[in-house]
Amino acid sequence: MGSVRVLRAINGSSLVWNPKLRNPTVCARAFSSKMSPPSKAVVYDQHGSPDQVARVLDFPPVEIRDKDVCVKMLAAPINPSDINRIEGWNVSPFRFADFVSTLCVYPVRHPVPAVGGYEGVGEVQSVGSAVTGLTPGDWVIPSPPSFGTWQTYIVKEENVWHKINKNVPIEYAATVTVNPLTALRMLEDFVDLNSGDAVVQNGATSIVGQCIIQLAQIRGLRSINIIRDRTDAEDVREKLKKLGADEVFTESQLEIKNVKGLLGALPEPVLGFNCVGGNSASLVLKFLRQSGTMVTYGGMSKKPIAVSTSSFIFKDLALRGFWLQKWMSSDKAKECQIMIDYLLGLVREEKLKYELELVSFENFPVALDKALGKQGSHPKQVLKF
């Protein structure tokens, strides 16, 4: 077909993509009488910098088959991992908070053209005749998350969607399945933690870091948190302590031989979390007790982790990695949904919170620039449809 390609990510249907045309056209096939509304979507037809390759396009209605659910999207975040997927192999050095890779390269190169976005929340617009578990007006999220959430309407089969309680802010419902779930799984999957144990982490200001602080406190765990040197370090320290952090140190404060002397009455951490790499990862390792474990889930500094021989021989430290997408691909759909309900329950009880900024979908370029760091430091951008 030359430059004309088939795009299957939009609304779950097959569309013909012709770069010379403003809009794709629907592949010829027999339609039922039930159709979705027209949709707008953020599409990229090649990998590269998102502000150069992503654009908003109009798409025609698509068929709603017997087992399909048409969902009107309410909100979807711009995650670092969403940016990484669009960039393909060209991952920038300061955006890789969601995934682990020793080379800081996104490990999955998705076919293009594609619709951006990986998680979000929507409201059921209409259902096919064979759908029994969902009705119009229900709030749903794709669980496990699925590609293509940066669009106004999505049509996919009922089994893709998980119904949630509507009594939560849409920005939290839209962001629960990546960062909070990562924090929860890392606290549960690597070390048997008991009340009174301590954990240590870098990247404490990230949403994963904020969630680790709060989830640790709920479990009776103590948290030691490392932040980068910054002019507003004192304000950041106070914010994290209000969330439940026991100690917050800047990297420069830890450039001493005996960091454990800073712990006071706190126990040596048994578990550490690293999303930065480089020297910041070494600081996490300094805190760990004998036979402690450090879990790496990102590499924002794009620098390798250096570990001394003595850390292995005399301290018997363990280095592990975590990638949420791989965990979700291991037949964890039901377990994932149970944890999502638990996390959203904590949100309703005001026991779990983190910084977000809602931005109208019409202002997608502005939200993208903020997510790319072009306008300084901003909370995670959440598109509101």
UniProtKB/TrEMBL annotation:
<dbReference type="InterPro" id="IPR013149">
    <property type="entry name" value="ADH-like_C"/>
</dbReference>
<dbReference type="InterPro" id="IPR020843">
    <property type="entry name" value="ER"/>
</dbReference>
<dbReference type="InterPro" id="IPR011032">
    <property type="entry name" value="GroES-like_sf"/>
</dbReference>
<dbReference type="GO" id="GO:0005739">
    <property type="term" value="C:mitochondrion"/>
</dbReference>
<dbReference type="InterPro" id="IPR051034">
    <property type="entry name" value="Mito_Enoyl-ACP_Reductase"/>
</dbReference>
<feature type="domain" description="Enoyl reductase (ER)">
    <location>
        <begin position="48"/>
        <end position="383"/>
    </location>
</feature>
<dbReference type="InterPro" id="IPR013154">
    <property type="entry name" value="ADH-like_N"/>
</dbReference>
<protein>
    <recommendedName>
        <fullName>Enoyl-[acyl-carrier-protein] reductase, mitochondrial</fullName>
        <ecNumber>1.3.1.104</ecNumber>
    </recommendedName>
</protein>
<keyword id="KW-0496">Mitochondrion</keyword>
<keyword id="KW-0443">Lipid metabolism</keyword>
<dbReference type="GO" id="GO:0006633">
    <property type="term" value="P:fatty acid biosynthetic process"/>
</dbReference>
<keyword id="KW-0275">Fatty acid biosynthesis</keyword>
<comment type="similarity">
    <text>Belongs to the zinc-containing alcohol dehydrogenase family. Quinone oxidoreductase subfamily.</text>
</comment>
<dbReference type="Pfam" id="PF08240">
    <property type="entry name" value="ADH_N"/>
</dbReference>
<dbReference type="InterPro" id="IPR036291">
    <property type="entry name" value="NAD(P)-bd_dom_sf"/>
</dbReference>
<keyword id="KW-0276">Fatty acid metabolism</keyword>
<keyword id="KW-0444">Lipid biosynthesis</keyword>
<dbReference type="GO" id="GO:0141148">
    <property type="term" value="F:enoyl-[acyl-carrier-protein] reductase (NADPH) activity"/>
</dbReference>
<keyword id="KW-0809">Transit peptide</keyword>
<keyword id="KW-0560">Oxidoreductase</keyword>
<keyword id="KW-0521">NADP</keyword>
<dbReference type="Pfam" id="PF00107">
    <property type="entry name" value="ADH_zinc_N"/>
</dbReference>
